[in-house]
Amino acid sequence: MLHYMNRQSFRYFRYDPTMPFDITITREFCAGHQLRLPDGALEPLHGHNWCVRVTASANHLDAMGCVMDFHDLEAQLDGILGPLNNRHLNELPPFNHDLNPSAENVAFHIGRSLRFPEGVQLRQVTITEAPGCQATWRP
């Protein structure tokens, strides 16, 4: 067990492998979209440099002392984002029929496409569509 002492306050902190932990990865992709408006019209086609942050959590660390391998999570996310990159989202499933390609629905699509090892859960997917404009999906 790792012990840490803050010399100024003489407080002890104990590391406990059963404490909950989160990990977060960040990726970017470029894509255009047109939201379908309530009257059935489409907004003008425009694009974004989308930023995607995925956070996974576990109540217990694995045998290596990790929530999960960062590289495994990155590879999964890259596999999901690859087909979206430099594309018109409205032309791709699930945005061509089922989902309006809003930032919220992009976060939902990414989150429901991820798979995790036993004991690891998706905490949230956050999409930044433009500076100051974020959407977060929490399952």
SSE layout and pairing:
Blueprint: E1 3-6, E2 11-14, E3 21-33, E4 46-58, H1 70-81, E5 87-88, H2 103-113, E6 120-130, E7 133-137
Task: Please provide a written account of the structure.
The chain is α+β, with helices and mostly antiparallel strands. The protein has a single domain, classed as 6-pyruvoyl tetrahydropterin synthase/QueD (Tetrahydropterin Synthase, Chain A), CATH 3.30.479.10. Helix content is 17%, strand content 37%. It contains two helices and seven strands; from the N terminus they run ββββαβαββ. Strands 5-3-4-6-7 form a five-stranded mixed beta sheet. Strands 1-2 form a two-stranded antiparallel sheet. The protein is elongated and about 55 Å long. The two termini are 33 Å apart.
Structure keywords:
139 residues, Tetrahydropterin Synthase, Chain A
Distance between the termini: 33 Å
Number of strands: 7
* Strand portion: 35-45%
Number of folding domains?
1
Low-confidence stretches: 1-6
Helix content: 10-25%
Summarize the structure.
Helix content is 17%, strand content 37%.
